[in-house]
């Protein structure tokens, strides 16, 4: 029993968007997608560029780097060098999704399915987002942060705030807790407790530093003890709590940047899954609409054309190649899991005995909730898909002049490729491992960091520059030592007070 | 459950502050780029903005990253002919090793080391004219037809109805009502209390008579209270507006250009460019400045802007004709005690044989004592002619009022212009 198509025209209207949303929402519910309520906002291209510039957030504090991003985006967009993303969706409750005014009706429907039901359910379900972010508080927190930084600018001058923000941004990737659950973000409390915290912090720091003199007669054993006792991976947190010279407001600014970094941390770790999940659902939902006759053939042609270009993966030797397309990998893996559930081959039964033949909806749902990119690939990348994408591993050792093909998509290579690819999405692989190692609290107050070298990979030259930012925050000399797995220091960087 | 919101009418300028901050932070670099681009582009198309390119390096935001080297295993898609164990030389420049699975983490123009963005005309001119000013600007008499600024200054109780201030009026009315009915209010509540007291007691004749009297008193008081009007004419308050004169310095710029036959098309073009630059500069910075245009060959005429820049003429050259006309105009229309007068002259340096001396005396005796500043631009790539030498003599005796520069090519115009009008502050 085919229904009549909702629309046949490329033009959209608010009534049509509402109708499409209702139908997509109904179908999504049939597939048991659990989502936050949606707040769909129609915006124009310039507003989309604004959103781009402030890392997708609906409002953000002011900083020149957002201006730079805005200029870059608008220049590229106006020259036709790049199209704008079709959508931006914010991990918030209600989930805010942007539709661009320029899009056709088909695109609006696609974006609604992709962002407002795909990404939305991922935000709500995935364990990383559940652990690290508080969707209901983020918008309030942004408002608080913007006001606070505004107030600081009024009181201490734009330049003073900018210099702190510059330094914080340089260390933003190192401002996250990776293993300990942070206390929940509560914006009302945030502003209420803020003065209390400022005062407490200042007092705490004073004790730390003033106790130094009293302990002068300590034993030699004590003198060798490091501060902090264990290396600290959250550089911004450590500085916020321990830097001797910072003003209370500067600590609060660091805290704001730290909170933002923490909020974005899950997104970095689930790019493949998140996009794959959203693509899988826009494909499945729109396909279901087509089956029910809610959209016509023309709509479907346009949809498939867009869909295929989104999930296109150029081969490694193509001029368009710029890494593995997370949409392609994610979408194909999701589709592949569904295939393994519904039509497992003999090979699948050996590789995935526990999911072959299981109901696909609950299997996918489980995968979405409990994995991040690294573990998801390690767990679910199938030989079938590796063959389809023709994956191969290249071993690149700087000591040798040649690249070596270490594994290809064959029986002996599957496992290797799978773990190589999974490692590639490990943040430990992407970012150098740098931790706070020691503070010379009895001497010149210098701060020593250690870079634990992984697979002989050195730091980029930008390290010197970042150290300067660190020094701005810490106020005293900074040392950074690159340490091999055997514990030898092979290179060190320094930045001393001017 | 979804809400659909139309946000298209919201402010689009969310990034404006951030953009301004960026422009401010890279002011030095942008200014350099503006100066570079001025050499290339024709000044006539200053009506548009400009694409500014600065080195991407200096706008970089450094973070801790992995450098090149070490051992890495990377997975690529689209294998065609490789089998396990194949080796091939490392591609030069590490091509193909980018990406490295970081997705679109580095989305900012891969492989570009320049950062290009667009600034609009206003910003362009801002950068262009930064640090320039009219020299020796003295506050002379305030402009006779002074412009006024209207602004609110308190409230008045007498004005026209459209200036009525509702909140104020009602506040006054409220205060008046409280003041006028305050006494009876107290009395009223006292009486009511008494009545209430009586009502709770057992009824007898005395109390019922008392009650009657009380009730009558209460109704009387209530009626009195009602008689206090809600709004009275003397409650009304009006916004009071006053006009304050805006002081402005009166200045006039006289542009003199030689349009004689010796001025080739090219030279005229350069002269025009100089004046357009000057014109833009003045228009932009001095709203209350008058600009006059004089062009001359053997005879000088005062023309309008359009004619000055765009019409052609030929003939011999008598520079003094223009100076005389300028002197007359200044004398008749711009009394010294009221105006700051500036004269800018452009010529190829060619002049009628004995005329240069006349120019010298004219300038020295008549014009220079009346004006603030005289700028002379000679556009020639050859040797100087007699006018230049005469003027050089002048410059020695009028160091602050007289200034001359030579322009050879179009690239010189902007630097020369800056030289002539650079502010004395720096």
What is the secondary structure topology, with strand pairs?
The complex is a heterodimer of chains A (498) and B (426).
Chain A: H1 14-30, E1 38-43, H2 45-53, H3 64-78, E2 87-90, E3 95-100, H4 105-125, H5 127-132, H6 138-156, H7 158-170, H8 187-214, H9 220-223, H10 235-242, H11 248-269, H12 271-291, H13 297-310, H14 326-342, H15 346-351, H16 360-370, H17 373-380, H18 383-389, E4 392-397, E5 402-408, H19 414-424, H20 427-430, E6 433-439, E7 447-452, H21 462-474, E8 478-483, E9 489-495
Parallel strand pairs in A: 1-3, 7-8
Antiparallel strand pairs in A: 2-3, 4-5, 6-7, 8-9
Chain B: E1 2-6, H1 16-25, H2 27-40, E2 50-55, E3 71-76, E4 87-89, E5 114-119, H3 121-128, E6 148-156, H4 166-200, H5 205-227, E7 238-245, E8 251-258, H6 265-285, E9 289-296, E10 300-303, H7 305-310, H8 319-333, E11 340-347, H9 355-367, E12 373-379, H10 386-397, E13 402-407, H11 410-421
Parallel strand pairs in B: 8-9, 8-11, 11-12, 12-13
Antiparallel strand pairs in B: 2-5, 6-7, 9-10
Could you please describe the fold and organization of this structure?
The complex is a heterodimer of chains A (498) and B (426). Chain A is built from 21 helices and 9 strands. Chain A is α/β, with parallel strands linked by helices. Among the domains of chain A are: 14-126 and 270-305, no CATH class; 311-429, no CATH class; 430-495, no CATH class. In chain A, strands 6-7-8-9 form a 4-stranded mixed sheet. Chain B has 426 residues and is of the alpha/beta class. Chain B is 40% helix and 20% strand. Chain B has 11 helices and 13 strands. Chain B has a 6-stranded mixed sheet with strand order 10-9-8-11-12-13, sandwiched between helices. In chain B, strand 12, helix 10 and strand 13 (402-407) form a beta-alpha-beta unit. Mean pLDDT of chain B is 79; it is low at 94-111 and 141-145. The chains are: A alpha/beta (498), B alpha/beta (426). Strand 5 of chain A pairs antiparallel with strand 4 of chain B, so a sheet runs across the interface.
């Amino acid at each position: 029993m085919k229904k009549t198509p909702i629309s046949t025209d490329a033009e959209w209207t608010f009534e049509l968007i509402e109708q499409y949303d209702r139908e997509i929402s109904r179908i999504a519910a049939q597939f048991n997608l659990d989502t936050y309520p949606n707040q769909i906002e129609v915006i124009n291209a310039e507003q989309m560029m604004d959103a781009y510039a402030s890392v997708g957030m609906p409002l953000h504090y002011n900083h020149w780097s957002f201006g730079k991003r805005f200029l870059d985006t608008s220049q590229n967009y106006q020259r036709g060098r790049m199209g704008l993303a079709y959508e931006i969706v914010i991990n918030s409750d209600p989930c805010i999704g942007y539709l661009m005014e320029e899009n056709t009706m088909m695109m609006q429907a696609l974006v609604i399915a992709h962002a407002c039901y795909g990404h939305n359910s991922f935000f709500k379900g995935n364990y990383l987002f559940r652990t690290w972010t508080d969707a209901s508080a983020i918008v309030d927190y942004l408002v608080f942060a913007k006001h606070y930084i505004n107030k600081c600018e009024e009181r201490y001058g734009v330049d003073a705030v900018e210099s702190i923000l510059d330094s914080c941004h340089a260390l933003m990737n190192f401002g996250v807790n990776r293993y300990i659950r942070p206390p929940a973000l509560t914006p009302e409390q945030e502003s209420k407790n803020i003065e209390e915290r400022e005062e407490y912090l200042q007092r705490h720091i004073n004790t730390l530093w003033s106790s130094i003199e009293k302990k002068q007669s300590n034993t030699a054993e004590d003198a060798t003890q490091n501060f902090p006792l264990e290396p600290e991976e959250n550089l911004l947190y450590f500085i916020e709590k321990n830097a001797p010279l910072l003003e209370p407001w500067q600590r609060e600014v660091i805290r704001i940047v730290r909170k933002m970094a923490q909020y974005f941390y899950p997104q970095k770790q689930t790019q493949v899954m998140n996009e794959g999940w959203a693509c899988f659902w826009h494909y499945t939902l729109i396909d279901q609409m087509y089956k029910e006759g809610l959209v016509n053939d023309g709509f479907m042609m346009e949809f498939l054309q867009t869909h295929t270009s989104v999930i296109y993966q150029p081969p490694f030797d193509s001029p368009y190649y710029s890494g593995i397309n997370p949409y392609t990998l994610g979408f194909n893996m999701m589709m592949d899991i569904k295939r393994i559930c519904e039509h497992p081959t003999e090979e699948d039964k050996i590789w995935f005995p526990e999911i072959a033949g299981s109901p696909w909806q609950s299997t996918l749902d489980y995968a979405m909730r409990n994995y991040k990119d690294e573990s998801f690939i390690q767990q679910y990348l199938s030989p079938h898909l590796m063959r389809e994408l023709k994956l191969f591993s290249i071993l690149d050792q700087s000591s040798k002049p040649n690249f070596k093909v270490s594994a290809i998509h064959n029986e002996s290579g599957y496992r290797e490729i799978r773990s190589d690819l999974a490692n590639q999405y490990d943040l430990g692989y992407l970012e150098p491992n740098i931790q706070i190692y020691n503070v010379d609290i009895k001497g010149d107050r210098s701060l020593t960091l250690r870079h634990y070298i992984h697979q002989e990979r050195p730091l980029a030259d930008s390290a010197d520059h970042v150290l300067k930012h660190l020094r701005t925050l810490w106020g005293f000399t900074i040392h950074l030592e690159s340490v091999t797995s055997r514990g030898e220091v092979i290179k060190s960087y320094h930045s001393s007070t001017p | 459950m979804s809400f659909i919101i139309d946000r298209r009418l919201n402010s689009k300028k969310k990034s404006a502050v951030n953009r301004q901050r960026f422009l401010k932070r890279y002011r030095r670099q942008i200014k350099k780029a503006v100066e570079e681009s001025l050499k290339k582009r024709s000044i006539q198309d200053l009506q548009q903005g400009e694409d500014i390119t600065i080195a991407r390096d200096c706008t970089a935001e450094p973070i801790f990253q992995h450098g090149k080297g070490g051992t890495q295993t990377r997975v690529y898609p689209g294998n065609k002919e490789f089998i396990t164990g194949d080796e091939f030389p490392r591609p030069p420049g590490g091509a193909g090793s980018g990406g490295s699975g970081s997705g679109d983490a580095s989305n900012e123009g891969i492989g570009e080391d320049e950062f290009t963005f667009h600034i609009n005309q206003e910003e362009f001119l801002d950068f262009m004219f930064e640090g320039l000013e009219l020299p020796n600007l003295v506050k002379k008499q305030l402009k006779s037809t002074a412009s006024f600024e209207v602004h609110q200054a308190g409230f008045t109780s007498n004005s026209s109805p459209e200036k009525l201030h509702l909140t104020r009026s009602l506040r006054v009315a409220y205060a008046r009502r409280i003041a006028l009915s305050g006494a009876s209010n107290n009395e009223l509540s006292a009486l009511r209390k008494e009545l209430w007291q009586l009502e709770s007691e057992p009824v007898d004749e005395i109390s019922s008579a008392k009650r009657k009297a009380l009730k009558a008193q209460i109704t009387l008081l209530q009626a009195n209270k009602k008689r206090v009007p809600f709004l009275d004419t003397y409650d009304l308050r009006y916004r009071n507006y006053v006009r304050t004169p805006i002081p402005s310095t009166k200045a006039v710029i006289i542009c003199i250009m030689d349009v004689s036959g010796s001025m080739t098309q090219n030279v005229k073009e350069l002269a025009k460019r100089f004046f357009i630059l000057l014109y833009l500069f003045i228009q932009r910075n001095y709203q209350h400045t008058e600009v006059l245009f004089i062009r001359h060959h053997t005879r000088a005429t005062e023309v309008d802007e359009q004619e000055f820049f765009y019409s052609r003429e030929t003939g011999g050259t008598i520079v003094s004709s223009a100076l005389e006309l300028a002197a007359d105009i200044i004398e008749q229309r711009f009394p010294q005690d009221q105006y700051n007068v500036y004269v800018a002259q452009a010529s190829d340096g060619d002049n009628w044989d004995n005329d240069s001396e006349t120019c010298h005396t004219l300038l020295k005796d008549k014009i220079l004592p009346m004006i603030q500043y005289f700028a002379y631009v000679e556009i020639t790539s050859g040797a100087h002619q007699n006018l230049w030498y005469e003027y050089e003599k002048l410059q020695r005796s009028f160091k602050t009022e007289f200034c001359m520069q030579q322009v050879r090519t179009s690239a010189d115009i902007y630097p020369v212009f800056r030289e002539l009008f650079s502010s004395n502050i720096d």
